[in-house]
Write a structure and sequence with these properties.
Elements lengths: L3 H11 L3 H8 L3 H14 L5 E5 L5 H9 L4 E6 L2 H9 L4 E4 L12 E7 L8 H11 E12 L5 H23 L2 H13 L4 H9 L3 E8 L4 E7 L2
Parallel strand pairs: 1-2, 1-4, 2-3, 4-5
Antiparallel strand pairs: 5-7, 6-7
Helix pairs in contact: 3-4, 7-8
């Protein structure tokens, strides 16, 4: 669990370079991950979509492109990030804390969160809020980092995560500490079956996961009956 003030300050400080830094650090693979999520969502032909912790809007923009007839709302508690999302073309944003969403029950067909749940003060409470605003029959999709299952790959990835990534990101953003924080959160964040159990404990059903790029990221999905 994370301290909200620290998280907000960290992201506000890197907002203007957040998207490009992510693309550089992942060699562009993060774009493919978001496209996969957006394609998966588009098959449901949703009408109302909420992207929680939208940040600079990367996932919401991809969904907006894939689902042009749907209403796509991006919410975040960091105003600097939402300003970037607006500049990049996200049509609607809402300044809101994920633990206290300003929407009525059963409002959305799909709720997504890309690389944001890990940064929240209370994962279970955030998932419960997503459950509340999701309509019956709706779907929640979580995209986030995880650790590779292979022992060798995990060791190499940890070296990159804790040594190389903060150094490169620090050069781009001038905020090395924000990316040292990233490594710590990934290490402590549940993944695989543990994350599915956490999602189901918040009321969702049929939680499942799909590993990406050898396990360095994972897509989780579940339904609200």
């Amino acid at each position: 669990m994370q301290d909200p003030k620290d998280v907000k300050d960290a992201f506000a400080g890197i907002a203007s370079r957040y998207a490009v830094t992510n693309h550089v650090l992942s060699l562009g693979v993060d774009i493919l991950w978001r496209r996969k999520v957006a394609k998966m969502i588009s098959r449901r032909i949703p009408i109302n979509i909420l992207d929680v912790a939208t940040g600079s809007g990367d996932l919401a923009l991809e969904i907006q492109k894939r689902c042009p007839k749907a209403e796509v709302i991006g919410s975040d508690f960091c105003e600097a990030m939402l300003q970037q999302a607006n500049k990049r073309g996200l049509k609607r944003t809402v300044l809101a804390d994920a633990l206290n969403l300003p929407f009525p029950e059963n409002r959305f067909d799909v709720v997504t969160v890309g690389f944001g749940l890990r940064n929240m003060a209370d994962w279970s409470e955030a998932l419960s809020e997503m459950f509340r605003v999701l309509s019956s029959g709706g779907c929640v999709v979580v995209l986030d980092f995880s650790l590779p299952e292979s022992v060798v790959c995990r060791k190499l990835y940890r070296f990159y995560l804790h040594k190389i990534l903060p150094a490169v990101a620090g050069l781009i953003t001038g905020k090395r500490s924000a990316y040292q924080y990233l490594g710590r959160t990934i290490e402590s964040f549940p993944s695989g079956k543990d994350m599915c159990s956490l999602i189901e404990s918040s009321g969702f059903n049929h939680a499942k996961f799909h590993s990406l790029s050898g396990g360095i990221a994972t897509i989780y999905s579940a339904e609200k009956n």
